[in-house]
Amino acid sequence: MRHPVSLIRRSLAAGVSSLPLLMAAAPGARAAGMPQLDFHNPLLTGQVVWGAGIFLFFYLALRGWALPRVETVLTNRNQRINGDLDQAHAAKVEADNAVRELNETKKAASAEAQAHLDAVLDQERKAAAARLAELSAKLETEITSAEKAVAAERARALESLKPIASDVAETLVQKLTGSRPDRARIETAVAHQVASEAASRQAIA
Fold first, then answer.
1. What is the pLDDT of residues 48-75, one digit of tens each?
2. What family classification does the UniProt entry report for this protein (predicted)?
């Protein structure tokens, strides 16, 4: 893209360079019916000279004063725009780096939180398993103790029932036979029967 100042300078230079061609073409133009280009007329010649002088003055003024200032303004404007673009590009790069660092930090924090959560859950599982094992052992001990206590109570109950069973058996035999049976034999039979029932219960358990 061409610079605007360069275009203005080329246009002015082209205008100045076209004056000799215009003067050279004046006789032919007059012959073709254009008296306004008759340079033999002193009035027209003065107008052309004054116009050329004014044009040359404005050309020199533009070239020496206005155009350099315009070029300076445009150059400063381009430099400022380029600087703003560079700053915007640097800001974009910095923002992209900040977003990347933020994503990496977020990912690292998420991984750390997940690892901490896994560790806590593993500790809780181990603690729950230990408590469950302790509770199971305690229940097993209590069940064993209860079974032993029940067995002891059953044995005491059976022992306490032996005299009663012996008395009942002695009374039944006496009523059935009419004679008093041997007390020792009845107690032995009752003890044998109680032992047999206890052995059968243990076998079932």
1. 788 888 988 888 888 888 888 888 888 9
2. Belongs to the ATPase B chain family.
